[in-house]
Design goal:
Layout (H helix, E strand, L loop, with lengths): L6 H22 L3 E6 L14 E4 L4 H7 L6 E4 L3 H11 L4 E4 L6 H13 L4 E4 L13 H9 L3 E3 L1 E4 L2 E3 L7 E3 L4 E6 L7 H18 L2
Parallel strand pairs: 1-10, 2-5, 2-6, 3-4, 3-5
Antiparallel strand pairs: 7-10, 8-9
Helix pairs in contact: 1-2, 1-3, 4-5
């Protein structure tokens, strides 16, 4: 079967995920993570698997080191950029599930449902893969409804970071930064509740950095 990628793309796929995962490891070892719990919330690490989590796309890099090697299933776009991300996070101990909330969404949700029923924690960037930023799509709530679970929202915010001029205002933590992880209470499988929880996670982080 012929490769779906061009020669240049195949070369990029052979090099970039190895380099990116190495850089993430080197950067991650300098970061200082700190959990912030909202009233009535529990740490995500203390919730028995399988569980479902929602986060914002801009936090992916800051999450990659801290949540490595936990066998977390993460929904990733089927695009070429998604392939780069999938191969990178796989090297960090994540389980990439291909699909998105805008293209190939139904197969992606079915694959995430399968991962959940196999016992994996599942994470979805609620505003991915193309935004708009901080607007949660229904995929997280749909998955939670399919499996009869609630949703844990969280936000990862470096105190010092480079912010890209991308649709998601992607954050690259600066070395030796303090990084906050905020946890509001878990919410039912409802799109409005997921949006509210994610908004609260951002508010908690911004308040804690003041």
């Amino acid at each position: 079967m012929p490769s779906p990628f061009t020669f240049q793309q195949r070369v990029t796929l052979a090099i970039v995920p190895r380099l990116a995962s190495f850089i993430i490891r080197c950067l991650g070892m300098t970061l200082r993570y700190e959990d912030v719990l909202d009233e009535g919330a529990v740490l995500g690490y203390d919730v028995p698997a399988p569980a479902i989590y929602a986060l914002w796309h801009r936090s992916l890099l800051a999450c990659a080191w801290h949540f490595r090697n936990r066998d977390i299933a993460i929904l990733i776009s089927p695009s070429f950029d998604g392939e780069l991300i999938a191969r990178t996070v796989q090297r960090l101990g994540f389980l990439p599930i291909r699909g998105s909330s805008s293209r190939g969404g139904a197969p992606g949700l079915r694959n995430m449902e399968r991962a959940y029923r196999e016992g994996h924690n599942c994470a979805i960037t609620a505003d991915g893969p193309r935004g708009p930023v901080f607007v949660a799509k229904p995929g997280v709530a749909q998955l939670a409804s399919l499996v009869g679970a609630d949703v844990g929202a969280f936000y990862v915010l470096p105190q010092r970071a480079w912010q890209l001029r991308s649709w998601d205002r992607f954050l690259i933590p600066k070395p030796f930064s303090r990084v906050l992880i905020t946890w509001p209470p878990r919410v039912p499988a409802d799109p409005a509740a997921v949006q509210t929880a994610l908004d609260r996670s951002v508010q908690l982080a911004e308040q804690s950095l003041k």
